[in-house]
Write a structure and sequence with these properties.
Layout: E1 2-4, E2 10-12, E3 25-30, E4 34-36, H1 42-52, E5 57-58, E6 63-66, E7 72-76, H2 78-86, E8 91-96, E9 104-108, E10 110-114, H3 118-126, E11 132-135, E12 143-147, E13 152-156, H4 162-179, E14 181-185, H5 190-196, E15 200-205, H6 211-219, E16 229-233, E17 242-243, H7 244-248, H8 254-270
Helix pairs in contact: 1-2
């Protein structure tokens, strides 16, 4: 399947491969070579920066895809990239997972607005001016809001392309990002969501994105709001626990760092310290 990016380039993407995933492609790259496609979430990135300043290992490396010569698109891990950049790390450990390898799937998160009031949320959105709130489902809406009383509101804005839609959505998400607690969920059934999140007041649902939209958002700085795109990576590397001191080092060359990483990974494999789980998993210690 192929998609045309706004700049005229053509990208091909394979359907998600259901066979066992290959060994993760771990690399150390220049921090400045990463390009996020979404804003970072200040509710998540600030605690992460404080933690990284005192931690000794990087636990879960960001997931990236190649984007031109020695440049990378951040698929997952915008907050981790922001923290590394803010702390002036010259290099960052990443897992490279190209869209076209058949082990990457793109879906969409739902946002839960928690610990706030519905009337205040609606009033803040109305103050944006160029976004209207309409009752019911609207096919051209930039987002829909589901409330606990089972009513549905559509957010309608005169946007003409994905870039303008992203800009409008950033305004909306910024409202509850600054005034409420933002949670994400992949659950579909509202009744299940309300039960699991008793302080949630609204569920935001967003239109689906294509990989070409993600690439264009990064290339042209037309960022999505934080936590909308959901990249599912078959064979994701977790709990890597790679020494942060090796990434902070400004004196060792990139090639030397990658050679040490290769030896480090090989030693882990030899010692049988790497385990592969093919099934979907929930982690309770994030």
């Amino acid at each position: 399947m192929g998609y045309h990016a706004p700049d005229g380039e053509h990208y091909y993407f394979m359907p998600l491969n259901q066979t066992d995933a290959p060994q993760p492609d771990l690399r150390i790259v220049l921090t400045d070579s990463l390009h996020p496609h979404e804003d970072h979430d200040s509710q998540r990135s600030q605690p992460l920066m404080e933690r990284l300043a005192s931690e000794t290992v990087v636990i879960n490396p960001p997931i990236v895809a190649p984007m031109g010569a020695s440049q990378f698109l951040v698929l997952d891990g915008a907050n981790r990239f922001h923290a590394f950049s803010y702390l002036n790390y010259p290099h960052i450990l990443v897992q490279v997972a190209p869209y076209e390898n058949g082990y990457v799937d793109l879906k969409t998160w739902r946002h839960l607005v928690c610990d706030w009031q519905v009337d205040l949320l609606i009033e803040h959105i109305k103050q944006l001016g160029d976004i209207q709130i309409v009752k019911g489902q609207v096919s051209s809406a930039i987002a829909h809001i589901l409330l606990r009383d089972e009513s549905v509101l559509a957010l309608v804005s005169p946007v003409e392309n994905t870039h303008e839609r992203n800009a409008a959505l950033r305004q909306v998400v910024r409202i509850y990002q600054q005034n409420a607690t933002l949670q994400r969920t992949a659950l579909v059934e509202p009744s299940e969501i309300w039960t699991l999140h008793p302080t949630a007041i609204a569920i935001f649902e967003f239109p689906h994105y294509q990989p070409a939209d993600i690439i264009a958002a990064a290339r042209f700085n037309a960022y999505l709001p934080p936590g909308i795109s959901r990249h599912i990576i078959q064979g994701r590397a977790l709990k890597v626990n790679y020494p942060l001191a090796l990434l902070r080092d400004h004196n060792t060359s990139l090639s030397e760092k990658n050679e040490y990483l290769r030896q480090w990974v090989q030693a882990k494999l030899t010692a049988r310290q790497v385990r592969y789980y093919a099934e979907s998993s929930y982690l309770f210690d994030e």
